[in-house]
């Protein structure tokens, strides 16, 4: 982009962006922990459906109903505005401004705008009220002076009117200085975090806003949020609430958005960004076959196209990374995916046919032998990819005990290309290596949506050489 004359690009992650734009302090659960938990199995059904639901446009609609409920509660607080005993603005007019005329604004900005309107209106009406009072007292004094013949009575009446005028008019002058501020005090500002926590924990509110859920789902949802913890899936709702209630600060407004790895985003995340930024100028690139977080994110492009009706859609099937031979193996996994994705077409670049090495258990010396053979072929970056973090740690420790130069990749660590890099499959996405060894022993790749995608990611990280080592080809879903 700088070479195209585009400078000062804000480059960030969705998490960092939302926390900056909302100024919320949250300790988020690591999304990879949730993925690992799902991959490991166990009773994860409530976790999975809640994560999926929080990424849906249905959940966006639940949050929108919540906002509309708050709108109505605020609208009911409007009352007629008075200067002393004179009504200067009707509640019905203020309610109309709030619900309709200013509905394009976030709620708190509407209220701020109504305060400006009210302040201006008070200033204008004050002159009318004062002119009316001056005229009233001038007429009353004139009648008293000219119509009362008794000197004592005339003096008492005139004095009464003058004292009343001299008391009321300064009082009105003083009252009008704070009329708008005093009136608007009834509208308290909302805390986004508190509002959202109320939704997560209030059974009566949840039943009202999500009536389509049956009782068991509502109870599972409430139970899951009994203790306060924050997940990536909550950020879309928090950002949407911020956008609709308070607005996104100007320094975090973007006119044009580019999203990489968009298959890891949910529809609600995309919809929230579109609403908060008030733009549909998005460029989104991604690969559904690598959607390892598909339990909470995109599984098809059609809903994204519906969300961005002006967008054009392009399918890029050409792979410039891997050899024909490696891609042929990866495509065998691709055809097993439920999304019916098009096969990837590798560019015409041949290499070694991927090797399957039968082994019943992990043998560090065998891995060393493969590693040294790859090095002799002139390749530098070499990764040993396995399914889970637990297995990666076990393999790394075994390699270290055998004095094999290796490195365990964590999320924020730089890569030493002189070592054999041990990588859990979910951290391999987005990386590429000259050669890859995919190992599976204690935790084989099962025929499930998540495992198929983790395996596809692992296979497609290799540019030149690919080795599979495990008890059988079925371990890598390749028996047939």
Walk me through the topology.
Blueprint: H1 14-22, H2 31-40, H3 45-54, H4 57-75, E1 81-83, E2 86-89, H5 91-101, H6 107-147, H7 151-184, H8 192-201, H9 203-209, H10 215-224, H11 234-245, E3 257-259, H12 267-277, E4 282-284, H13 302-307, E5 318-319, H14 324-334, E6 345-346, E7 355-358, H15 364-376, E8 382-386, H16 389-401, E9 406-408, E10 420-424, H17 425-428, E11 433-439, H18 449-459, E12 462-470
Parallel strand pairs: 3-4, 5-6, 7-12, 8-10, 8-11, 9-10, 11-12
Antiparallel strand pairs: 1-2
Helix pairs in contact: 1-11, 4-11, 4-12, 6-7, 11-12, 14-18
Structural write-up:
The chain has 480 residues and is of the alpha/beta class. Helices cover 50% and strands 10% of the residues. The chain contains 18 helices and twelve strands. The strands form four sheets. It has a six-stranded parallel β-sheet with strand order 7-12-11-8-10-9. It has a two-stranded antiparallel ribbon with strand order 1-2. α18 (449-459) links the parallel β11 and β12. The protein is elongated. The two termini are 45 Å apart.
Q: How much β-strand is present in the residues?
A: 5-15%
Compute the average pLDDT: 90
Helix and strand pattern: HHHHEEHHHHHHHEHEHEHEEHEHEEHEHE
Number of helices: 18
Overall shape: it is elongated
Instruction: Report strand order across the widest sheet.
Output: 7-12-11-8-10-9
Uncertain segments are none
Q: Largest sheet, described in full? A: 6 strands, parallel
**Helix proportion:** 40-55%
Gyration radius over CA: 34 Å
């Amino acid at each position: 982009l700088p070479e195209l004359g585009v400078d000062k690009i804000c480059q960030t992650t969705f998490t960092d962006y939302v926390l900056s734009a909302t100024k919320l302090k949250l300790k988020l659960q690591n999304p990879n922990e949730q993925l690992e938990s799902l991959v490991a199995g166990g009773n994860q059904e409530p976790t999975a459906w809640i994560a999926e639901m929080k990424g849906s446009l249905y959940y966006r609609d639940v949050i929108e109903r919540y906002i509309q409920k708050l709108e109505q509660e605020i609208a009911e607080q409007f009352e007629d505005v008075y200067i002393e005993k004179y009504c200067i603005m009707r509640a019905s007019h203020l309610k109309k401004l709030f619900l309709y005329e200013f509905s394009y604004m976030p709620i708190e900005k509407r209220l701020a705008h109504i305060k400006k309107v009210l302040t201006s209106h008070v200033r204008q009406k004050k002159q009318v009220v004062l002119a009316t009072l001056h005229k009233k007292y001038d007429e009353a004094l004139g009648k008293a002076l000219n119509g009362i013949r008794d000197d004592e009575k005339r003096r008492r009446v005139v004095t009464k009117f003058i004292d009343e005028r001299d008391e009321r008019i300064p009082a009105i002058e003083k009252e009008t200085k704070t009329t708008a501020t005093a009136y608007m005090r009834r509208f308290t500002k909302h805390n986004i975090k508190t509002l959202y926590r109320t939704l997560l924990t209030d059974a009566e509110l949840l039943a009202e806003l999500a009536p389509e859920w049956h009782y068991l789902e509502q109870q599972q949802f409430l139970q899951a949020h009994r203790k306060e913890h924050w997940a990536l899936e909550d950020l879309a709702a928090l950002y949407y609430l911020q956008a609709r209630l308070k607005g996104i600060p100007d320094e975090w407004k973007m006119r044009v958005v580019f999203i990489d790895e968009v298959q890891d985003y949910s529809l609600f995340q995309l919809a929230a960004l579109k609403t908060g930024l008030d733009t549909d100028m998005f460029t989104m690139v991604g690969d559904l076959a690598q959607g390892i977080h598909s339990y909470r994110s995109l599984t098809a492009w059609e809903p994204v196209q519906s969300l961005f009706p002006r967008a054009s859609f392009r399918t890029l099937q050409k792979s410039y990374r891997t050899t024909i031979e490696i891609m042929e193996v990866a495509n065998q996994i691709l055809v097993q995916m439920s999304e019916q994705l098009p096969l990837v077409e590798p560019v015409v670049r041949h290499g070694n046919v991927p090797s399957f090495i039968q082994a019943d258990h992990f043998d560090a010396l065998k891995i060393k032998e493969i590693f040294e053979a790859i090095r002799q072929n002139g390749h530098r970056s070499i990764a040993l990819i396995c399914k889970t973090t637990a297995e990666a740690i076990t393999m790394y420790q075994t390699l270290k005990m055998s004095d094999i130069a290796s490195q365990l990749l964590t999320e924020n660590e730089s890569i030493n290309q002189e070592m054999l890099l041990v990588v859990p499959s979910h951290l391999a996405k987005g990386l590429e290596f000259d050669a890859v060894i995919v190992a599976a022993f204690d935790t084989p790749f099962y025929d499930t949506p998540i495992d198929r995608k983790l395996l596809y990611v692992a296979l497609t990280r290799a540019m030149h050489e690919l080795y599979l080592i495990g008890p059988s080809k079925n371990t890598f879903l390749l028996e047939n």
